[in-house]
Amino acid sequence: MHSVLLCVSELVTNAHLHAAGTAHLVLTWDGRCLHISVADADPRLPRARTPEGDASATSGRGLGIVTALADSLDVHACHGGKAITACFRPAGGPDPHGAEPHSADPRRADPDRADPHGGDPWSG
Predict the structure, then answer these.
(1) Backbone dihedral region of 79: left (phi > 0), alpha (psi from -120 to 50 degrees) or beta?
(2) What is the pTM (predicted TM-score) of this model?
(3) Residue 40, exposed/middle/buried by CB under 10 A (0-12, 13-18, 19+)?
(4) CA nearest 20: which of 37, 49, 43?
């Protein structure tokens, strides 16, 4: 759970610092993956930073942190701006961007039939 919170903070902070105007945060669960998307109106895509950059710099590591913590990261232009989406799957879950899971567990095949008693899928 801490990785998800840190990535939300990094993505929103990056949008606040680098984008013009407002940003929109959307969290979506598709039954296999939690998608954290931040969209803004700035069409400039983030630049890749080199690892050998200024070691004393106090910024410039946000997307590197998100890349290290998320299962996948997608950056794309949309509606005249951009959207950055980090994907997190529960511990032990299937690859969210692979083929449909082949499981006899109906809760995995049908997200509406998830465990009604809770449990923390993000621990592990």
Answers:
(1) left
(2) 0.69
(3) buried
(4) 43
| Distance of alpha carbon 70 from alpha carbon 49, whole angstroms | 18
Q: What is the structure's pLDDT at 102? A: 42
Beta-bridged to residue 87, according to DSSP, are 35, 72
The token duo for 67 is 């890349």
How many Cβ atoms sit within 10 Å of the Cβ of residue 84? 23
How far apart, in whole angstroms, are the C-alpha atoms of residue 98 and residue 22?
A: 33
Alpha-carbon gap, residue 8 to 87, rounded angstroms: 11
Q: What phi, psi does 62 have (nearest 5°)?
A: -55, -55
At 50, which amino acid appears? T
3-state secondary structure at position 11: helix
Count other Cβ atoms within 10 Å, centred on residue 58.
6
Which letter does DSSP use for residue 21 in this model?
A: S
Comparing 58 with 33, the larger pLDDT belongs to 33
Q: Is the Cβ–Cβ distance between 73 and 85 less than 8 Å?
A: yes
